[in-house]
Every structure is written in structure tokens, then in C-alpha cells.
Specification:
CATH architecture of the largest domain: Up-down Bundle
Strand order of the largest sheet: 2-1-3-4
Number of helices: 7
Number of domains: 2
Strand content: 5-15%
CATH topology of the largest domain: Glutathione S-transferase Yfyf (Class Pi), Chain A, domain 2
Shape: globular
Number of strands: 4
Distance between the termini: 36 Å
Length: 221
């Protein structure tokens, strides 16, 4: 049995969930609060980070390691493919969202609105929120530029680049902070992604005490 230890608001866990969904894997989820990890999680991953992948005694930690592990072992539905240059571009885009988008957008919005509330019972910092919203616009301008050239972020087919980006954006969308009407190509691209079967379970996610935006579960927004 495949078990993924995750948290609803982790973009890295969401990325792996989407990847496993695209590969039509059966898996079970176990939720952990990142700000209050159990001793079992710390034993499995001393770094104290989610997600954690378990399967028949194998334990894989680190979202990049899990992603590559799944690509190596489930090649029937490849999500990092093509020439060496094409694979490099997919991985570059993954790193863009997992590192740059996370630092400039996710951390300023999600950590402020959710982590501070549940971990420290504090209100978000308005300066950080404003910075996150402004940075979101810059990132979406880049996505628009990419989508002017291709149907998807790294080419004409869906790849891990798209799943990684969608995983991060989906949480911002839950909170209602995406100005979709300002970015028509990004809106169309995201609509196609969240209409896929792999996205179905993510759209069922809820955060206690925080209702999702009207757009979150709407496939034709």
C-alpha cells in the first residue's frame, strides 16, 4: 500500500498527489500539521518536512526525490520526457515554482494567512501579503508569456512543470487571491488542468475555518 504523509497546504505534497493521480496510482493520505509534527514523522524524516512517501517498507523523503522515484519506477505515463534539453526545461520550470514562486509568493500569502493563524495564533503581516500579491502578478505575467508560445508551460503536452505550478497556484486560488480575469491564457491553462481527474481530490480539500474561494471548485470559471 502506498501511503503519502502530507498536509493540505503543502504545494510539494500537492505536486506529488497530482503526479500519482496522472500515473493512476492508488494511494492513501495521512495528514500531519507541519507546525506540530508527530514523533513518527520526525523519525521517518529527521528534517521534519513533508511529504513522505511509504510503500512496502520503502521510505522516500524530499519532494524532488519522490518525484524522480515515481518517474523512474512508473514509466508508462512519463511526466518528465523528451530530449535532454526538454527534460532540463521541465526541471527548470519545476524549480522555478518550487523555489522562486514559493519564496516570493507562497511564503508571503499562505504562510501569513494559514501557518501564522494555526501555528502562532497571529494575524498576517499586511506588508508581506501585499508583497506576495504583487509578486504573484509578476509570476503570472511570465506564465502568460510562456503560454503565448505553447499550450503548456514546457511544450505542447502536460508535464511535471504544469503539475508543479498548478500545485502552488491551487492553494493561492483556495484563498481567493488570484486575479484570474487579468490573465486569460493562465486562466484557460489552469482550467484545463483542474478539469483533469488527477485534480479531483485536491478540489475536495478543505482548511478548517477557512472557506475556499468561489473559483476553487468551479471547473468552468
Amino acid at each position: 500500500m502506498v501511503l503519502l504523509i502530507h498536509h493540505t497546504t503543502s504545494p510539494y505534497a500537492r505536486k506529488i498527489r497530482l503526479q500519482m493521480g496522472e500515473k493512476k496510482m492508488l494511494f492513501v493520505l495521512k495528514s500531519e500539521e507541519p507546525w506540530n509534527l508527530s514523533s513518527d514523522v520526525k523519525r521517518l524524516n529527521p528534517a521534519g518536512e513533508l511529504p513522505i512517501y511509504l510503500n512496502d517498507g520503502s521510505v522516500i523523503v524530499g519532494h524532488y526525490a519522490i518525484c524522480e522515484y515515481l518517474e523512474e519506477n512508473l514509466r508508462d505515463v512519463p511526466l518528465i520526457f523528451g530530449t535532454p534539453e526538454q527534460k532540463a526545461e521541465i526541471r527548470r520550470m519545476m524549480d522555478w515554482f518550487d523555489t522562486k514562486f514559493y519564496r516570493e509568493v507562497y511564503r508571503n500569502i499562505v504562510l501569513e494567512k494559514i501557518y501564522k493563524r494555526f501555528a502562532y495564533a497571529k494575524a498576517p503581516d499586511s506588508v508581506a501579503l501585499k508583497a506576495g500579491i504583487n509578486n504573484l502578478g509578476y509570476h503570472f505575467e511570465y506564465i502568460e508569456w510562456l503560454l503565448e508560445k505553447h499550450a503548456y508551460l514546457a511544450g505542447e503536452e502536460i508535464t511535471m512543470a504544469d503539475l508543479t505550478a498548478a500545485a502552488h497556484i491551487s492553494i493561492i486560488d483556495y484563498l481567493g487571491d488570484v486575479p484570474w480575469n487579468e490573465f486569460p491564457l493562465t486562466k484557460l491553462w489552469y482550467s484545463k488542468l483542474k478539469s483533469r481527474p488527477s485534480f479531483k481530490d485536491l478540489l475536495k480539500d478543505t482548511i478548517p475555518g477557512i472557506l475556499p474561494s468561489r473559483n476553487y471548485t468551479n471547473l468552468d470559471f
